[in-house]
From TrEMBL, chain A:
Keyword Zinc part of the UniProt annotation: no
Protein name (database record): ABC transporter
CDD domains per UniProt: ABC_TM1139_LivF_branched
GO molecular function: ATP binding; ATP hydrolysis activity; branched-chain amino acid transmembrane transporter activity
Tree of life domain: Archaea
Database matches in Pfam families: ABC_tran
InterPro entries found in the cross-reference section: AAA+_ATPase (IPR003593), ABC_transporter-like_ATP-bd (IPR003439), ABC_transporter-like_CS (IPR017871), BCAA_Transport_ATP-bd_LivF (IPR052156), P-loop_NTPase (IPR027417)
Gene3D superfamilies: P-loop containing nucleotide triphosphate hydrolases
Lineage: Archaea, Methanobacteriati, Methanobacteriota, Stenosarchaea group, Halobacteria
One GO-annotated biological process of the protein: L-amino acid transport
Span of domain ABC transporter: 1-234
Keywords: Amino-acid transport, ATP-binding, Nucleotide-binding, Transport
The family this protein is said to belong to: Belongs to the ABC transporter superfamily.
Length: 234, 380
């Protein structure tokens, strides 16, 4: 079943069109990666799914319902979690409060979700009373993911979660994403560590200048001469 | 991230390492900067001044009780500055502009609140017009005849305070609908300039109704121990309101969503926080505090004038900037420092110059810590 179905999407900022007829699907529980050069519009696609850009045409369906034009809180409640590329925690609020904000649209903070997230990221439980701004980069990424997982979404949008992490932490981050996906959550990942991301995912898209360039299974993209040469550094 | 990042994580990470170590080297080698020297200077000055106070106390140059009195006045001034400063700081961090009409919200509360207190407490003692306009014309009823003071007419004073907050909230919300709401995406500078216009318009509007005559308002109340009853009332109520705000910010969902939005507006939107509702709550709290501040200042000083808030605005900005603009707890710290400085410096300076000392201290601290005392911490 298709979870997210983006078809012929046009979007941008104000009058500036960035995304030009992009198609993209994520199946139920699937793990999909978007790679592409800087400024290709990868983040813009994600923001568009979340209704944070200027919509210019095409369709965005989630579980069969058109969600373009939905407000962010409606999109969250349909079951999409989003971790933006940068500034993805509330720095002066505690770890616990950041997680609570993830469940803002609920009347009560679901304690079992918090427990579940502490199981997944034990360091967050240790640091629960600390301000998010005092965490290391890797811990902040975990917190941002934890926040996005608070409502147990069916689809998690992750924008460059390994940015700025040391090499061993990058592997650790990928392992964590694998585990989230193993538990049945669909993942749409934008990554600068393109090779590693393609190795781990089910399918991948190569986005260039706001348009689809290649689309295939991760392994096939890794094997493709042209993709290797142009986008993966040989 | 750079273009090379797609070629794999190798370059990327080592790039990070290089810049890290470069900055570490820079830190180690950095010579003493001008800011450090100013910081040292301020610290030295503080030590000297404290030593001088001790000397004066020992030699009898200043009475022990006099010093205590200055400290108490410092606390009193800090409290009403703080009431106004937290609101200014909140509008800055959540609406992202420096609101120059905040001072005139203080004046709005002062007049609105005392009009209500006069109506309730002075009913039958003078014409309704005289009461509602809070003695706008001279020659009518005197403050002593109306007799408003906390012991004689606590209910009128309390009702006046509630009205002061409520009227100011209504005015602030109306101004937001009319002016600022249309400008949400226009950036801080345009909104700042608009707020200067709003400040003038609001003040002249108040002057048309209440006239610009400075006049006495309250009757004298008996002292409570070493304090006047009215300054004690001011300090207690302001303290209670600030504690209440602290609890709201830390314990309630609304408070947390306000802190979240002050922290990171875009992320607040993504988590589903209804941002317009948070903005409304910000105006309500900020304006209510400003209005009550103005009302309590009149209670303490005994008189009201049209420039009350405007003249105070500079001190409030000083407190907010000193604490780190946008930081609510910083605004409290800043208020305390400003209030204390203005009063304790009376030991050395005539009262005209005492205010200047607060601004000089602010400038010195800003040179030393450009983001304010709590600015870098981003404690909202
Ligand atoms: N808020 C904005 N307003 C206007 N233009 C924007 C905005 N955000 C991004 N852009 C532009 O849109 C284009 C695509 O940006 P986007 O952030 O989607 O790229 P990206 O593929 O995510 O790049 P990166 O790898 O650097 O994250 C860029 O040209 C960028 O300058
Ligand atoms: Mg991006």
């Amino acid at each position: 079943m298709t979870l997210l179905d983006v078809a012929n999407l046009d979007s941008g900022y104000g009058d500036l069109q960035i995304i030009n007829g992009v198609d993209m699907q994520v199946g139920d529980g699937e793990y999909v990666t978007i790679v592409g050069p800087n400024g290709a519009g990868k983040s813009t696609v994600m923001k568009s799914v979340f209704g944070l850009t200027t919509y210019m045409g095409g369709s965005i369906e989630f579980k069969g319902t058109e969600i373009s034009g939905y407000r962010p809180e409606e999109i969250i409640s349909t079951g999409i979690g989003y971790v933006p590329q940068s500034d993805n925690v509330f720095p002066s609020m505690s770890v616990m409060e950041n997680l609570e904000m993830g469940a803002y649209i609920l009347d009560e903070v679901p304690q079992e979700r918090i427990d579940r997230i502490f199981d997944r990221f034990p360091i967050l439980e240790e640091r629960r009373q600390q301000n998010a701004g005092d965490l290391s980069g890797g811990q902040q990424q975990m917190l941002a993911m934890g926040r996005a997982l608070m409502l147990d979404p069916d689809l998690l949008l992750l924008d460059e979660p390994s940015a700025g992490l040391a090499p061993d932490l990058v592997q650790d981050m990928f392992d964590r994403i694998d585990r989230i996906n193993d538990d049945g959550t669909g993942v749409l990942l934008v990554e600068q560590n393109a090779k590693e991301a393609l190795r781990r995912c089910n399918r991948g898209y190569v986005l260039v200048q706001g348009q689809n360039r290649y689309e295939d299974t991760g392994d096939a993209l890794l094997a493709d001469e042209q993709v290797r040469k142009d986008f993966l550094g040989g | 991230m750079s273009r090379e990042s797609l070629t794999g994580m190798g370059e990327n990470i080592s790039g990070g390492r290089i810049s890290d170590s470069a900055s570490a080297v820079r830190n180690r080698l950095s010579p003493t900067s001008g800011a450090d020297i100013v910081g040292l200077f301020v610290a030295l000055l503080m030590v000297l001044l404290v030593l001088d106070i001790v000397r004066r106390l020992v030699t009898g140059g200043i009475a022990y009780t006099k010093l205590l009195e200055y400290l108490w006045w410092g606390l009193r001034d800090a409290m009403y500055i703080a009431l106004a400063a937290v609101g200014l700081s909140m509008t800055y961090s959540i609406l992202q502009f420096a609101n120059f009409s905040h001072g005139d919200l203080i004046t709005t509360g002062a007049f609105g609140g005392w009009a209500a207190a006069y109506l309730v407490g002075g009913w039958g003692l003078a014409s309704v017009g005289e009461l509602v306009l809070v003695r706008a014309t001279s020659g009518g009823v005197s403050p002593g005849q109306v007799g408003l003071q906390v012991f004689a007419s606590p209910l009128a004073i309390l009702i006046g305070m509630v009205v002061a907050g409520a009227v100011t909230v209504l005015v602030a919300l109306a101004i937001d609908r009319l002016v600022y709401k249309r400008m949400r995406d226009q950036g801080g500078i345009s909104m700042l300039i608009a707020s200067v216009g709003v400040a003038l318009a609001l003040r002249y509007f108040l002057a048309v109704i209440f006239t610009n005559r400075k006049r006495g308002v309250t009757a004298t109340a008996p002292d409570v121990g070493p304090f006047t009853a009215h300054e004690l009332t001011l300090v207690i109520i302001a303290f209670a309101l600030i504690v209440g705000l602290h609890l709201l910010l830390q314990r309630t969902k609304l408070g947390k969503s306000m802190r979240a939005m002050a922290d990171n507006k875009d992320l607040a939107l993504i988590t589903g926080i209804p941002t317009e509702r948070v903005i409304t709550a910000t105006w309500i709290i900020g304006a209510a505090f400003a209005g009550i501040s103005g009302y309590l200042i009149v209670l303490d000083r005994g008189s009201v004038s049209i420039n009350l808030g405007w003249f105070l605005l500079l001190l409030i900005f000083a407190a907010v900037i000193l604490g780190g603009i946008g930081s609510i707890y910083g605004a409290l710290v800043g208020s305390l420092i400003i209030g204390m400085t203005v009063n304790v410096s009376l030991i050395w300076l005539p009262s005209d110059l005492a205010k200047v000392s607060a601004f000089i201290l602010m400038i010195l601290i800003l040179v030393f810590k450009p983001n304010g005392l709590l600015g870098g911490v981003e404690t909202t």
